[in-house]
Design goal:
The protein is an all-alpha fold. The chain has one domain (about 5-170). The protein is built from 8 helices and no strands. Helix 1 packs across helix 3, helix 4 packs antiparallel against helix 5 and helix 4 crosses helix 7. The chain starts with a helix and ends with a helix.
Length: about 170
Amino acid sequence: MTYNQKRYIELLKHSEDLKNLGKSFYQESRDEYLELSKYEVAIQSYLYWKSRTLFVLLMEKFVNKIISNEEFSNSFLELRQRLIYECDGFLKELGLKKLKDFQLYPRSYGFGSLISFLRSECDNFNENYQNEEFYDYIKDCFLKLQKAFNGKVILKYFTLPLKFLNFYITYLN
């Protein structure tokens, strides 16, 4: 995806105009709604990518059994939620044209999908933190992230379930 700030602002303004008229952006202009959504997902991935070290350090503590499954899950979800709030503010600043030179970092594409996948793993194992499968998922992602940061692997080669892999490939191409 090529980020075009002018286009993003146009779409955001159109969305707000329709909202102010009590109309649904999705129903009025589905293609533009989807285009705006792609921009917002890419921007969220960028912000997650900027905090990738925090995610990796948290995963490292978990993999090395410094923190428990429950501590990992709670900390991960809190970090993700904080970044969602930051993303909302960031999107508003972009919409107000306060960040004129903003550009996405190409390696950030798809990183938000990985974070969403990990969030769903935390949710799935919320009832059974002693499950070894939970530990194995997090460890696998952690090891692959380490390789990715060393430039040996890019995110589209993560061995995630097919539905997530397809999502990555869409954003990385």
